[in-house]
User: What shape does this take?
Amino acid sequence: MAALLDVAAVRWEYEPVEFALAWDERGRVISAFRPDFWLPDLGCFVELTTADQRLVTRKNAKVRRMATLHPDVDVRVLYQRDFVALLESQGIGGESQPAA
Assistant: This one.
């Protein structure tokens, strides 16, 4: 993802911010979310999700909680199928791509 952003000349930062999602009775953070990329020129975060479905479900729950607690923060989720399609649209990866 970072290489694609570089090729597209999109400025990015990797996991620069962690957002608290839940606290214990003492006010300590017990659940947090750190989106993968911050795109400062676009004003949004990108969460790249290439994990199995069980983990994707948990991550989606965190993204929903994030939207509830931090409605002013724009987080876009890029799922594995979308990332693969993006790579293929750039001539990278895919079934027809020979192994290096």
In short: Residues 53-69 form the longest helix (17 residues). The first strand starts at residue 13 and ends at 14. The chain has three helices and six strands.
